[in-house]
UniProtKB/TrEMBL annotation, chain A:
Name of this chain's protein: Acetolactate synthase
Catalytic reactions on record: 2 pyruvate + H(+) = (2S)-2-acetolactate + CO2
Residue intervals of the Thiamine pyrophosphate enzyme TPP-binding domain: 396-545
Taxonomic lineage from the root: Bacteria, Pseudomonadati, Pseudomonadota, Gammaproteobacteria, Oceanospirillales
Free-text cofactor note: Binds 1 Mg(2+) ion per subunit.
Species: Larsenimonas rhizosphaerae
InterPro entries (UniProt xref): Acetolactate_synth_lsu, AHAS_TPP, DHS-like_NAD/FAD-binding_dom, THDP-binding, Thiamin_PyroP_enz_cen_dom, Thiamin_PyroP_enz_TPP-bd_dom, TPP_enz, TPP_enzyme_TPP-bd
TrEMBL record, chain B:
GO molecular function, one term: acetolactate synthase regulator activity
Taxonomic placement: Bacteria, Pseudomonadati, Pseudomonadota, Gammaproteobacteria, Oceanospirillales
Protein's name according to its UniProt entry: Acetolactate synthase small subunit
Catalysed transformations (reactions): 2 pyruvate + H(+) = (2S)-2-acetolactate + CO2
Enzyme class per UniProt: transferase
Pathway: Amino-acid biosynthesis; L-valine biosynthesis; L-valine from pyruvate: step 1/4; Amino-acid biosynthesis; L-isoleucine biosynthesis; L-isoleucine from 2-oxobutanoate: step 1/4
Species this protein is from: Larsenimonas rhizosphaerae
Gene of this entry: ilvN
Keywords for this protein: Amino-acid biosynthesis, Branched-chain amino acid biosynthesis, Transferase
EC number(s) per entry: 2.2.1.6
Alphabetized Pfam families for the sequence: ACT_AHAS_ss (PF22629), ALS_ss_C (PF10369)
Length: 575, 163
């Protein structure tokens, strides 16, 4: 029998759980835990420069690895600084465990120094939260936290730890709990057999089907099953932004992503579909546009592990609660029973889709020629070439995010890392760092904007301390581009507070941290700079790419319209 | 439509605020709310009356079920059920009015549980509409205070909500 203090139990538990890195920042209420971490070597602590960055690092790691990211912060301001990162993870269903120091139990409720009711503050943005009541509860509570964070529909879990729970003088028996059970929590996996059969029947009769896959494909590790099913049925596949890479974009059946800035062909196909198979999606407003005009002729099959996602915004005709992987495999099983498949020919449907594709071919944007100011889109395409389409691509939020999603083509899941649901500027740099630390031999590219980057640029110091070689591509349009685009479209170009005067000289800024920045203005300069950037996998390089500030992201949904109502450029819109 | 949803909730700190917070967070409405321990010390029972169309009620039950602290849930209004609420009402009771009030109390099968020279305190149980009717009947004599427990209920017959 082993007696450990609460603090030592935490350190030991993290080791036993197989956690390699935790990201955090110390303070009074967490100091016993920090001392315990100091006295061991198994779990490595990464000191950030702002607690929000710790949560985004954990988030980035979780999106790339599929495992929960772990954060440690102190009470009060430490915990409140983590709130944006917790909300970001919650909106995108990312597994995360956040350990928060708290004032000692006897002080709770007295407005003690650095006391914040963080369980209360985070209540609407966590999957669940715990407060430690006794040190001996620590192993089981932590196990529950990890289990909840990573099972079912994943999400962040907060564990509040009053300082007296980790006191070095109080020791209790420690046993690593291999398994925990919770009577009130048993996420479904298998879908309903009858419903699955109904779904297959409907798909086989469909004349204009579309498969619409989301983040659930990535978190649910269902890419392979999805790809098999799509090929088997010869059906077009579109994904949400969260689902990028869940179906290979190089594949002929891929329509790219859909929604507000999705591809023309994806949005057109959705609008005209007669059957939509939604898998691991939540039909959010950035996808559907006006729900009452959404896909008027479609019957909807909706597979999701979270029953509350089904029929929340769009009513499902065939709802199936279950894990994407299981249900898709069940569908494949049913299909093989039906050889030869009495499958309706999709030739007409494919020729319509191919017409939509060719309508926009070569018209997406006009790349800059020699000596001209770069277009952001072509920068993304050049980075795609330079990294052979095989980098982890992380973004911040804004136009650059949409361009990155549109022009970097993804063939693998877990490679696209972007704050989709909350749209958190500042997410990018720390998320990229979290990935690079655990995937040292891969290229991790951050597409950012000068606005977003400045929200978390203090983390360059963390990169310096831990030698984190992310590649940063700043699509510098000298403005809060996405805001400016909306102002161009909706406010007669009155650019209220969307212009970033007094930008730093990024070369000087980066050199202050001991890093290199290269300023790029033309296509020729870009090619040379990219070669330098990717020469050494371990060097942090910052490309300050001056791009055309007038560029807009298209297509763009017309507000309140249907899926097919889109602006296609500054001068064209769908009829 | 009005629905009565009964929930078995883990008797854990924070559980109640999660359940109640959900309603404001998701823009669902709460008309009455009633919470108390059960025969099982690890569980409390929460009953909420709410209104909404089918889609809203479906979301309410799904979102509640998703809370880790919610062990079981039933929408009592989906079947035959018994609904009860208790109310204490203080009314002005002077002179001739005292008999008049007494008669109304009898008609409603309520009880006078406290008396002063100028005030009656009446206890009444029933479904929400009976309590509403009593409040209306007492309005002319002058209501001083109303305390209602909120609706509680069970399904009729052998259907039970337990583990
Ligand atoms: C924390 C935060 N604040 C505000 C916004 C609103 N917002 C969305 S995009 C954007 C502009 C981003 O500018 P930049 O990072 O330079 O990217 P660009 O659009 O220019 O590519 C803003 C302010 C946000 N998403 N997140
Ligand atoms: Mg910008």
């Amino acid at each position: 029998m082993e007696l450990l203090s609460g603090a030592d139990m935490i350190a030991r538990f993290l080791k036993d759980e197989g956690v390699e890195y935790i990201y955090g920042y110390p303070g009074g209420a967490a100091l016993h835990i920090y001392d315990a971490l100091f006295r061991q070597d198994d779990v490595k602590h990464i000191l950030v420069r702002h607690e929000q960055a710790a949560t985004h690092m954990a988030d980035g790691y979780a999106r790339a690895s599929g495992k929960p990211g772990v954060v440690l912060v102190t009470s009060g301001p430490g915990a409140t600084n983590a709130v944006t990162g917790i909300a970001t993870a919650y909106m995108d269903s990312i597994p995360m465990v956040v350990l928060c120091g708290q004032v000692a139990s006897h002080l709770i409720g007295e407005d003690a120094f650095q006391e914040t009711d963080i369980v209360g503050v985070t209540r609407p943005i966590v999957k669940h939260s715990f407060s430690i009541r006794h040190p001996s509860d620590i192993p089981v509570v932590l196990k529950k936290a990890f289990y909840l964070a990573s099972s079912g529909r994943p999400g962040p879990v907060v564990v509040d730890i009053p300082k007296d729970m980790t006191a070095p003088t109080e020791r209790y028996e420690y046993v690593y709990p291999k398994k925990v059970r919770m009577r009130s929590y048993s996420p479904v996996t298998r879908g309903h057999a009858g419903q699955t059969r109904k779904a297959v029947d409907l798909l086989l009769k469909a004349k204009r089907p579309v498969i619409f896959a989301g983040g659930g494909i990535v978190t649910g590790k269902a890419s392979e099953a999805l790809t098999d099913l799509a090929r088997r049925l010869n059906m077009p596949v579109t994904t949400s932004l969260m689902g990028l890479g869940g179906y290979p974009q190089g594949d002929a059946q891929s329509l790219g992503w859909l929604g507000m800035h999705g591809s023309y062909e994806a949005n057109m196909a959705m609008h005209h579909a007669d059957v939509i198979l939604g898998v691991g999606v939540r039909f959010d407003d950035r996808v559907t546009n006006n729900v009452s005009r959404f896909c008027p002729t479609a019957k909807i099959i909706h597979i999701d592990i979270d029953p509350s996602s089904i029929s929340k915004t769009v009513r499902a005709d065939v709802p199936i609660v279950g894990a994407a992987n299981h249900v898709l495999n069940d569908m494949l099983g049913l299909l093989s029973e039906r050889e030869p498949e009495q499958h309706v020919s999709l030739d007409d449907w494919w020729s319509r889709i191919n017409e939509w594709r060719s309508e926009r071919e070569g018209k997406l944007y006009e790349p800059a020629g020699e000596g001209e100011t770069l277009k952001p889109q072509q920068v993304v395409e050049a980075v795609h070439r330079a990294t052979h389409g095989d980098a982890y691509v992380v973004t911040d939020v804004g136009q650059h995010q949409m361009f990155a999603g549109q022009y970097y083509k993804f063939n693998k899941p877990n490679r696209w890392v972007s704050s989709s649901g909350l749209g958190t500027m500042g997410f990018g740099l720390p998320a990229a760092m979290g990935i690079k630390l655990s995937y040292q031999d891969d290229d991790v590219v951050l597409f950012t904007g000068e606005g977003s980057f400045q929200m978390m640029m203090q983390e360059l110091s963390t990169c310096k301390q831990f030698g984190i070689g992310v590649k940063i591509v700043n699509l510098n349009n000298q403005s809060l581009g996405m805001v400016r685009q909306w102002q161009d479209l909706n406010y007669k170009s009155r650019h209220a507070q969307s212009y970033m005067e007094s930008l730093p000289d990024f070369e000087v800024l980066l050199s202050a941290y001991g890093f290199r920045a290269i300023t790029v203005r033309t296509p020729e300069e870009l090619e040379a700079a990219l070669e330098e950037t990717f020469a050494d996998k371990h060097e942090l390089v910052f490309l300050d790419v001056q791009v055309d500030p007038r560029e807009h992201v298209y297509p763009m949904h017309v507000p309140l319209g249907s899926m097919r109502d889109m602006l296609l450029s500054k001068t064209e819109r769908t009829s | 439509m009005r629905h009565i949803i009964s929930i078995l909730l883990e008797n854990e700190p924070g559980a109640l605020s999660r359940a109640v917070g959900l309603f404001s967070q998701r823009n669902f409405n709460i008309e009455t709310l009633n919470v108390a321990p059960t025969d099982d010390a690890t569980l409390s029972r929460l009953t909420v009356t709410t209104t909404g169309d089918e889609r809203v009620i479906e979301q309410i039950t799904k979102q509640l079920n998703k809370l880790i602290d919610v062990v079981k849930l039933v929408d009592l209004t989906e079947g035959a059920h018994i609904e009860r609420e208790l109310m204490l009402v203080k009314v002005k009771a002077h002179g001739a009015q005292r008999d008049e009030i007494k008669r109304t109390v009898d008609i409603f099968r309520a009880q006078i549980v406290d008396v002063t020279p100028s005030i009656y305190t009446v206890q009444i149980t029933g479904d929400a509409s009976k309590l509403d009717a009593f409040v209306q009947a007492m309005a002319p004599v002058g209501i001083l205070e109303v305390a209602r427990t909120g609706v509680s209920g069970v399904s009729r017959g052998d259907k039970v909500l337990n583990l």
